[in-house]
Amino acid sequence: MNLPVLAAAIIFWLAAWAFNEWLVRQNFRSAAASSAARFAVPVIFGITILVLWEGIVRGFQVPSVLLPAPSMIWQKLINSLPTLGADFRQTFLKAVLTGYALGCGLGFAVAILIDRSPFLQRGLLPLGNFVSALPVIGVAPIMVMWFGFDWQSKVAVVVIMTFFPMLVNTVAGLAAASHMERDLMRTYAASWWQTLVKLRLPAAWPFIFTALKINSTLALIGAIVAEFFGTPIVGMGFRISTEVGRMNVDMVWAEIAVAAVAGSAFYGVVALIERAVTFWHPSIRGGRA
Question: Residue 173 belongs to what H/E stretch?
Fold first, then answer.
């Protein structure tokens, strides 16, 4: 056991925790300082986790095959950039983005159709809830058999995983407009399309963006898991499953880090678009106040 390293990590963790506690209790007068403090708190917390992780691994001399240190993972990531880049392009740029666009787009279009048909609303929504509960580990091998081992089968898995959350949330959002607001549109002799575009879709945007944010993480998870069941010799899921078999755990964690950063960035982009589109919503205005 390396006690000095472990003690240094614990001291750093306690100091960073105390500093974060001080930051969150401050009432800054300027908006810039307040925004900087809100940004600094999660950054400091993340750095603290990494330092504590490093200290525990080195302090207790944990074997790297069980849990590599962050410094070891970083070194592996830097030395494997070409491989990680190829895996990222195969999984994220091809499978995730394509499946996300198709799944969310189809879910939105079908929700509009369901809204026009009470029969579809009563018949398709229960089926959608059933299919959305299917485990990806059971659907992925079937998609691989249907669409082959390349990225197209991963797109099919992502479409299945993202279609029904978008469908259910959009249908719920279209029903969010109150009867008083709909009656007002009828008094203006607005058509169904005018009511949809000017009233019901704006009311549904928070629900739609909730589905988009949920799907941004579901799509990445679905594509990676689908690659466990058949893929060319490239892809995040393929690399994780292969390197686990070789006991190269540092490479596995490097792939996990890339996936985590990509998923977080994707979620953040969707959240920024939501703030721009739904700037009028009380939740967004409240966050800016």
Answer: helix 151-174
Longest dimension (CA), the chain: 78
The whole-number pLDDT of residue 284 equals 66
End-to-end CA distance of the chain: 50
CA 213/CA 269 separation, integer angstroms: 9
Residue type at 217 in one-letter notation: T
Q: Is 281 left (phi over 0), alpha (psi -120 to 50) or beta?
A: beta
Which tokens go with 65?
A: 């095959």
- Residue whose structure tokens are 């009511």: 195
Structure tokens at 42: 């999660």
Query: What would the pLDDT profile of 60-81 be if each residue is shown by its tens digit?
Result: 888 888 889 999 999 999 999 9
Specify whether the CB–CB gap between 278 and 231 falls below 8 A: no
- Nearest to residue 168, comparing CAs of 202, 134, 211? 211
> Following CA atoms 189, 194, 196, 197 in sequence, which dihedral angle do they give, to the nearest 10 degrees?
-150
pLDDT per residue as tens digits for the range 217-248: 999 998 998 888 877 788 899 899 889 888 88
DSSP designation for 233 = S
Output the CA torsion sign for 9, 10, 11, 16: positive
